[in-house]
TrEMBL record:
A GO cellular-component term linked to this record: membrane
Signal peptide: none
Domain of life (superkingdom): Bacteria
Species of the source: Pleionea mediterranea
Chief localization: membrane
Keywords: Membrane, Transmembrane, Transmembrane helix
InterPro entries, per the entry: MAPEG-like_dom_sf, Membr-assoc_MAPEG
Pfam families from the UniProt entry: MAPEG
Name by which UniProt lists this protein: Glutathione S-transferase
PANTHER family: GLUTATHIONE S-TRANSFERASE-RELATED, PTHR35814
Length: 129
């Protein structure tokens, strides 16, 4: 059973849905049927949503593998909490500015750290057994 991963998958699902709703809202507001119509806010909203879609699934797959292999619950909660926090930071940072920002920088960095820790932990699990 992967109940811890399910918790963080659900939280990330809420985030992805919220980001998608924001894209739809901006498309309707700016009368853009597809793409971004050259509207800066919409272009960033599409990119924020896409970025979440690019990173969240691989982390959840890595977390599910760890949980199925019996990794301690505390590590799972650390990874899941950091994933949600980093994705929120990134969404906030990129939504506010297309350039460098606190949220974008730390959101990206922490997401990458979660991926690295998850990969290493999975490899350790594999080679230890």
């Amino acid at each position: 059973m992967i109940s811890i991963t399910s918790l963080y998958a659900s939280l990330c699902g809420i985030l992805i849905l919220a980001l998608a709703i924001r894209v739809v809202y901006l498309r309707r507001k700016n009368k853009v049927g597809i793409g971004n119509g050259g509207v800066d806010d919409l272009r960033r909203a599409v990119r924020v949503h896409a970025n979440a879609i690019e990173y969240i699934p691989i982390v959840l797959i890595l977390m599910a593998a760890l949980e199925l292999n019996g990794v301690n619950g505390w590590l799972m909660h650390v990874l899941g909490s950091l994933l949600v926090l980093s994705r929120l930071l990134h969404a906030q940072g990129l939504s506010g500015s297309p350039g460098v920002s606190f949220g974008r920088f730390w959101g990206t960095l922490v997401t990458w750290i979660v991926i690295i820790i998850s990969v290493v932990a999975n490899l350790v699990q594999f080679f230890a057994n």
